[in-house]
């Protein structure tokens, strides 16, 4: 279960970041979703980050969601992103239902113009979490009481709470019977090229249902399924395996210390914290912050679904199996090493596609679209190593995610690169419909 704990810690809402320009950057889209930070600073108190339009309620409740999901669901690899998407879409709908400015997510309800968007955000997150995790009700109720204590009592607060609950119930109903947790078998046929449980735990396929769950944005899990991985006898396959053998091993590797650090850094990231940090540093208001979380989390969730769909469909073996059994693959350019071990513990699911890389591509494309710039200004702390890295541009993050999984010895470069491209295609398509500025 070590594998599960490591991935679960990946609070990777990854991206969360972006620059202060909130343009879609798509043909026919408005040039800007609102005034930039400098303009807001000069426009008066409603945009200074204080009072009703402060993002604090959204940030607080997304942190509460992260902690609650970890404690109550103990999410297996990939599940965390599904849960975060549920909460952040409810919060987003609650906020933009009051504030306007952006298109709601699969909804068209509006709140009274006098409602408190902060109260709506808190009530929406509280209701979704309480519904799915009734055991956490006392802690969630106390947290809601604390948030509402910072909002003046009266009709605005009451209207906000009522609308937030309405937004939450819409998401709860929307996601009912979506396939979460369903039994999805993956028969193991231990022939060359086919996935089978890997050492040291030899665990069965983890959370296979993710590849069949109803997506948040896509029309179906297989909508962006890529073509097949390289054939076992191909030169590309041999090249992938040689790189892993030389750079991904636990011992005797050609990795530099910096490459080893990168591999370990990406095991678990505090990306929800990075979202909060970015929103604060760039002066985002409550609507912009809710949009940032919803766009990031739904992109992550659908990227996981797309990656798991490919894993189920192609079922390719992991590097540790491929290298140890290379004498069975029929490729004269590969060499077996029965004792090879990867730097990182191999997650319990197939190689192609890489979940991390697919999420990285989706996140960065979603953020650059929503924010109108490739400069994501991302500061992310690794839960694994404690190090914080600053990613100025989206391509830097995508590059490091791809490299990290190879240097960790757990994914082929092809699984990473195709995953990253799949994630980008998914997000580019989604941006045409979701989280757009209102006319």
Could you please describe the fold and organization of this structure?
The structure is a single chain. The protein has a 3-stranded antiparallel beta sheet. Helix content is 49%, strand content 4%. The chain has helices at 2-8, 37-42, 56-73, 79-99, 117-132, 137-148, 155-174, 235-247, 257-265, 271-281, 286-314, 319-324, 355-371, 394-407, 413-430; strands spanning 269-270, 375-382, 388-393. The protein has a single domain (2-180, 234-430), classed as Vanadium-containing Chloroperoxidase, domain 2, CATH 1.10.606. The protein starts with a helix and ends in a 9-residue tail after the last helix. The protein is elongated. With 439 residues, it is mainly alpha-helical. It has 15 helices and 3 strands. Keywords: Signal. This is Phosphatidic acid phosphatase type 2/haloperoxidase domain-containing protein. Residues 1-33 form the signal peptide.
Calculate the terminal CA-CA distance, rounded to whole Å.
49 Å
Structural class from helices and strands? mainly alpha
Q: Mean of residue pLDDT? A: 89
Main beta sheet strand tally, sense and closure: 3 strands, antiparallel
Number of helices: 15
Q: Summarize this, please?
A:
Residues 33-45 have a biased composition (Low complexity). The chain is mainly alpha-helical. It has helices at 2-8, 37-42, 56-73, 79-99, 117-132, 137-148, 155-174, 235-247, 257-265, 271-281, 286-314, 319-324, 355-371, 394-407, 413-430; strands at 269-270, 375-382, 388-393.
